[in-house]
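step=encode ok
step=design start
structure_in=
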């Protein structure tokens, strides 16, 4: 067909037909493409094609399970690492108003040893004190200047149940519990360092016997000076009570053992372990008084008192 022979109307009709056919073909192609993609989505839609709204939300049950698994994982890791963390034995606090030392043991605060009613707590404090003296190689600082005391052999036995020290992430300092108002925490947190200690070989009173007398400028060895309860004068003799929470009254307990031993050997000597006016141990034998065990006379009574002390320390009474 000769295009030049076509009229204008015929040419327009041909153009319209071609355009209409192209539109129909395009619509069919697009419809087929959409249908093909829809079929692929039903089989398995890729995650990167899914919108946030089409992602199914996890139910609360699955969230709880995942949270428990994560918690168990963290707990296992903490349990493995806890055995390598330091352990708080006691905390030394300072009263800002009176400048007195306060000892915090497992959340309970004590201002002096007379307030202690638990033998294990008292023993822990005395063992830690001896450990500190070993740490300083026997050096202490007093109002008269530095002094040197005998270094005790000690082993920590009255340990608390394991409670790892939590660390403040901001300051990287150990958190050992909030102190009561009016008390500021000193930079003296005692931690368990078994590798720094040596075996406990001597009786308990020999460790505290190195405390210097208040009225003397030089340290006095072999002198028992724990602070104890009020005077024992006029108190009737009581049978010793074997308990974990009996009164931490060293003089009274040792005196009970001494009286029992005197009856066992039928010795009529008057012997009493009492308290001096300056809160030190006083040993009375007949009409004489002694402040050091090694000074006690006669030797038979001295040996009896020493045996009583060893028996008290072993707990077999």
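sequence_out=
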């Amino acid at each position: 067909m000769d295009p030049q022979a076509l009229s204008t109307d015929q040419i327009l009709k041909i153009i319209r037909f071609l355009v209409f056919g192209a539109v129909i073909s395009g619509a069919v192609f697009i419809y087929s493409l959409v249908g093909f993609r829809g079929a692929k989505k039903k089989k398995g839609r890729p995650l990167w094609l899914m919108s946030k709204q089409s992602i199914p939300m996890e139910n609360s049950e699955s969230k709880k399970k995942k949270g428990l698994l994560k918690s168990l994982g963290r707990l296992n890791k903490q349990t493995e690492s806890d055995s390598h963390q330091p352990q708080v034995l006691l905390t030394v606090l300072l009263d800002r108003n009176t400048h007195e030392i306060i000892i915090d043991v497992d959340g309970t605060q004590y201002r002096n040893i007379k307030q202690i009613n638990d033998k294990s707590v008292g023993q822990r404090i005395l063992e830690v004190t001896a450990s500190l003296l070993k740490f300083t190689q026997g050096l202490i600082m007093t109002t008269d200047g530095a002094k040197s005391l005998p270094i005790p052999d000690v082993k920590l036995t009255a340990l608390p149940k394991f409670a790892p020290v939590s660390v403040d992430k901001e300051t990287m300092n150990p958190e050992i519990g909030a102190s009561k108002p009016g008390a500021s925490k000193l930079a003296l947190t005692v931690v368990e360092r078994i590798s720094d200690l040596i075996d406990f070989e001597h009786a308990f009173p020999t460790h505290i016997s190195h405390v210097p007398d208040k009225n003397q400028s030089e340290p006095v060895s072999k002198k028992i000076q724990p602070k104890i309860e009020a005077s024992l004068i006029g108190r009737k003799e009581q049978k010793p009570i074997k308990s974990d929470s009996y009164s931490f009254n060293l003089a009274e307990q040792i005196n009970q053992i001494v009286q029992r031993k005197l009856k066992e050997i039928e010795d009529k000597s008057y012997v009493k372990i009492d308290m001096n006016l300056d809160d030190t141990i006083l040993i009375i034998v007949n009409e004489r008084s002694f402040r050091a065990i090694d000074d006690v006379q006669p030797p038979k009574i001295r040996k009896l008192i020493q045996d009583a002390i060893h028996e008290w320390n072993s707990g077999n009474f």
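step=design ok
step=annotate ok -> Residues 47-55, 163-248 have pLDDT under 50 and may be disordered.
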